Structures are given as C-alpha cells and as structure tokens.
Amino acid sequence: MFKKIKANIIPQKASIEKAINKMEISQKKILLVVSNNKFLGTVTDGDFRRFFLMKNRNLKSSISSIANKNPTILKISEISKKNKIKNIFLHKAVNYIPVLNKKNIPVGILDRENYFDFEIKNNFPIIIMAGGFGKRLGSITKTIPKPAVQINGIPMINKLIQKLYKDNFKEFYISLFYKSNLIKNALKKNFKINNLININYFTEIKPLGTAGSIFKIIKKFKLSGPIMVINSDIMTNINFQDVINYYYKNKSDHLVCVKEIKTSVPYGICKIRKEKLIKIEEKIEISNYINAGIYIFNSSKLKKIKIKSKIDMDKLLHQLISKKNRITTFPINEFWIDLGTPTNIDRAQIIDALTI
User: Fold this and answer.
1) Which of 111, 113, 134, 131 is nearest to 122 (CA)?
2) Which of 34, 170, 262, 291 sits between 20 and 30 A of 225, alpha carbons compared?
C-alpha cells in the first residue's frame, strides 16, 4: 500500500535548490516537509513551477517558504476506507496523499494510480494543430508539410503523439490543411500503436488562422469540458499529465504553457534619467516568457466567444483576457524546443538521438 517515503522527506530548513535536486531523483513527485520528524506540509511539481514565475526568486530560501501548509492528508486509521480515498482522488487535484500517524509523523504516501485504472483517468481530448505551411523551414517544406518532417527517421507529429501516448493519452483530434494527405499517410505508416489510440481528422477548406479550427473541431465532434491544444511543431519532455493536474489545482478557465528564454545583451546598457547617464551595466541578461504552444481551454468558455471563421491564437487569448477569463500559466522548466527552423531541427535531431 505505502511507498517508501524516505526519499520524499525533506527538513523545513533545506533550501529550495536542494529540494529541486531531491525531487528530480525521486520516483514520486512530492516532498513531505518536516520539522523534528513532524509533518508541516507538501511541495509538489506545481509549487516549484509557481516559484519559478516569481520575480525575486531565491534558490537559497528554505523549502518551507513555498510549501503547501494545508494539503490533503489522511490519518493511518483511515487508509482502509477505500471509497473515501477514491472520492478524495476523484474530487481533489492531487496525485498523492500523505498518511500521518497519531503523532503527526509521515508514515506513507497513497498513490492515485493505485485507485484508478488506465482507462478511467486518461480520456482527455487532445487537439493537435498541424495545418501550417512551415514557411520558416524554407526548402524543407516545399514537398512535405512541416508535421511530416522527420526527426531521426520519425515524423515530428508521430514523435509528439508517441510522447502523449506514453503519458497515457489516447484521444486525438488533428487539424490539417497544407498537404493533409501526407500527414495522414505519415501517421498510418509510422505510428506503431495506432490500434490503441483514436485519431480523428479535421481538414480546413481554407486557412482558419492558428486557432480557428479549434472552434470547428469542438462543434464537429461535440467536445465538452477542458481540452488540450498542442502545436505539432514542438518537442518537449514534460509530463503532460502534470499540465492537466496544474490546470485543475489552480482552478483555471484556461492555461497557457510558457518557456523562460534568457537573452544576453553584448553591449553596455545605459540607464538614463533626464538626459543624464546615471548607470551603465555590462553583460545584461534579459529574461522573458514565451508562448510554448501548449494550452488547455475550457470548451464551454470558448463557446461564448464570438469569432469570424478565422482567428489567430494571440487574438483569441486577448479576447479571453478581455472577457475576464482566468488564464493560468504553466512554466516549462524541462526541455522544450520549437521545430520551426532548420537550425532547431538539427538541434532536435542531436538531442533526440542522445535520449533514445
């Protein structure tokens, strides 16, 4: 019933940096924060991601500064109540529940996977946007569409679906336009597990922008509830289940994955006030978050948006913001790359080969 928890225990005075290292080697992505062996709270993947969104983050701060001091817990006397535990997992956005003894000392961790089988938890619709022209790839996409461009012999869209399948997703809706038949053929020919998943296609008659087909797919296939939308031209090793858990835990209307990009400025940056130079800084590093091309949308909220047939993703997000929709950002700290340029294709080939 219980997992070994020694690897998941961390003292409250430990630094956030140490906790991150501990989490990375832990099989279960939860840390139990203690003081004199007494339970104080939990730290999960989502807590670390919120930390990295902070402006004045300090990796030397104690882990207790970002810990959830009021997590869902169970007493050891309650672990036989399987229906109660199952209901907690069903209605709470948690993957693990710490179990405490009478002295408030952690003695175990209950795992969501022990209470739900493969079929129950992974019927989450995934829309993959694969209708673009791939103009940034130049001559590479003159004869084949970008999603069919190969990474070490496998089309990038196949790589993406294989990763999603590994994370236990099986319901896919693919938006097509440019050379759509070649993409369908690539999936049929190269995707080895297509008998275990369900792929539905929607082909645009004319370009609908980078978000327009989402509305058509929702209507055509009568989708409801939250849906995940992913650009076909990205490669990442994030766990997509973590994205969904983060979405539910933050009680979001929608979610946008973001990636921090740091840019070094090779010149001296002049700080000027009223035409006077007051400071000059060398080797400045500018940090920005970019749109990573992974989203979760509440389809019922999207149905309230009035659009023409064509709309780009930035315009859609602006509309949702103007309608006071709550949009959470999910910072990607793991590997992520945009496969939209020849240089990045070459880089992806190397990285992919190293991970095979």
Assistant:
1) 113
2) 291
